Amino acid sequence: MADEQTDPLIPDEDVVDDRNTIEGQLIGHSPHPRLSNHIMLQIQKYLDGLNYPATKYEVQHYAASRGAGKQIIAALDRLQGSSYQNYNAISNELSK
After folding, report:
1. 21, 28, 93, 96: which could form a disulfide with 33 (CB 3.0–4.6 Å)?
2. What is the phi-psi region of residue 49: left when phi exceeds 0, alpha when psi lies from -120 to 50, beta otherwise?
3. Are 44 and 91 in contact (CB under 8 A)?
4. Are 33 and 67 in contact (CB under 8 A)?
5. Would residue 48 count as lying in a domain?
6. Domain span including residue 54
7. What is the Cα–Cα distance from 74 to 60, expressed in whole angstroms?
8. Are 92 and 34 in contact (CB under 8 A)?
9. Alpha-helix residue ranges (DSSP H) falling in the chain
């Protein structure tokens, strides 16, 4: 019986491509892994024009109103503060 060759362009059934999930965009394996640069850039894009100070709810609502998907909203759900004075405050907290 000949050995079967696998096509390198067709993923194995056991391989899961999670690059398009929030888990796939996280870096590290800690309980609160750092968000990838790609997700952080998306967050910045969706928060452009937000009036500060803003609460976590206002941040999430604004991002959603600009078309942010579930992954971005889930990333913003990691925010723990009660109010944010500017984007840098959000970015700094999400980068921890």
Report:
1. 28
2. left
3. yes
4. no
5. yes
6. 34-94
7. 9
8. no
9. 22-25, 37-47, 56-65, 70-76, 87-94
Whole-prediction pTM value? 0.67
Q: 17 lies in a domain?
A: no
Task: Say what the pLDDT of residue 30 is.
Answer: 45
The pLDDT tens digits of the residues spanning 24-40 come to: 444 444 455 678 899 99
Show the tokens assigned to 82. 């009660």
**Which backbone phi and psi does 83 adopt, to 5 degrees?**
-155, 150
Which residue, 64, 56, 63, 67, is CA-closest to 93? 56
Q: Is residue 3 part of a domain?
A: no
Peptide bond into 53 cis (omega under 30): yes
Domain count, the chain: 1
